[in-house]
Write a structure and sequence with these properties.
The protein is of the alpha/beta class. The protein has 2 domains: about 230 residues, TIM Barrel, CATH 3.20.20; about 110 residues, Cyclophilin-like (Cyclophilin, Beta Barrel). It is built from 10 helices and 15 strands.
């Protein structure tokens, strides 16, 4: 997975810090839109150059969303201008003819709109440098179904092209609605990490943060996933859990390649936990998100750690050591680390 950040002319003041944070997290891509009707044509050229410059200064390759309205913003020869200021690829939105798209492709590599393109439309571009990138949806209930993303990803891969999609941010959200910029409607309320994991599971190659800023923690978690393939699950300790147990949970492990329906089972945990000071008593209720460890009474399963994916009854052989803030549906064999914070007092 390649990771990308976004910067917009209306949020140009956020671009430099956001792109730097993204690069620190391992991002290699940046996205901007040069067709937003509210943007001011009198300053668009200089602001676009500043946003693109902020991205390239952080080592990010810029994908710019364009339409016929881009010429209104940027003036004559917009594609040559974009190339000159450092844009690496333009994403073609609606309104261009096939011949116009091919003409743009002679100036800059292109990305086509994965959310609207049909297989029959793609053959003229088979020998062009192309990627497919989905739309994002600023208004609640207008986003795509994940199944639609899967279909377009399969189409992109049939041509040997990469496919990209967007996740909503959790810090500054782009106006005027501020409802997030995800591709998939069902992702709108999820954490950035959970959204990214779901898109990668669907086959998406490039995950862009659609909104102009993320929290520091979210960049960190996305970075662990992008660079190392590790899904870090944050949560809170159960009272009385030994610090050595919490420290061992934070060591990256992986879900078993034969995944359980109800649990994320950490494959290497039995060896790592069996000798630690585990809780003395089990049998607690196990609601979704519980982090559990098998006790000595579980025999050879002693020390096995799991994250509960659906509500389960208590088991005297199993102790709850904490609860994750959000259950992320990791892939089979995916890297997992659990980082539990101390519970706050009263």
């Amino acid at each position: 997975m390649r990771l990308g950040a976004s910067g917009y002319l209306a949020h140009a003041d956020l671009a430099s810090a956001s792109f730097a944070a993204a690069a620190d997290a391992g991002a290699t891509l940046a996205f901007t839109s040069l067709q937003i009707p509210e943007d001011d044509p009198s300053s668009a050229r200089s602001v676009a150059a500043a946003v693109v410059g902020a991205a390239t200064s952080s080592g990010l390759a810029v994908v710019a969303d364009v339409s016929p309205d881009t010429a209104r913003l940027l003036g004559d020869s917009p594609w040559e201008l974009l190339r000159s200021i450092g844009v690496a690829r333009v994403r073609i939105d609606s309104g261009f003819s096939e011949s116009a798209i091919l003409a743009i492709a002679r100036v800059l590599p292109i990305a086509l709109n994965a959310s609207t393109v049909r297989a029959a439309d793609l053959s003229p571009f088979a020998d062009v440098d192309v990627e497919l990138v989905h739309n994002f949806y600023p208004r609640e209930w207008t986003g795509s179904a994940l199944s639609s993303v899967v279909s377009s990803v399969e189409l992109a891969h049939s041509f040997g092209w990469r496919a990209g999609a967007f996740i909503a941010g959790d810090s500054v959200r782009r106006g005027p609605l501020g409802e997030g910029l995800p591709t998939v409607e069902a992702h709108r309320g999820l954490s950035p990490l959970a959204q990214a994991v779901a898109l990668v599971e669907a086959g998406v190659d490039d995950v862009y943060v659609g909104d102009p800023a993320l929290t520091e923690r979210s960049w960190s978690r996305l970075g662990s996933f992008a660079r190392e393939g590790v899904v870090v699950l944050d949560g809170v300790e159960a009272p009385g859990v030994d610090a050595a147990v919490s420290a061992a949970l934070a060591v990256p492990d992986r879900d078993r390649v034969d995944p359980a329906e109800a649990l994320i089972r950490l494959e290497g945990s039995r060896t790592r936990f069996a000798g630690l000071p585990l809780p003395l008593v089990g049998g607690q209720p196990r609601p979704t998100g519980s982090v559990t460890v098998q006790l000595a009474t579980a025999g050879r399963y002693c020390g096995e750690v799991a994250v509960v994916l659906r509500d389960l009854p208590g088991d005297e052989r199993v102790a709850v050591v904490g609860w994750v803030d959000e259950v992320v549906a990791v892939r089979r064999g995916a890297g997992v680390a659990v980082r539990l914070r101390r519970p706050t007092s009263g």
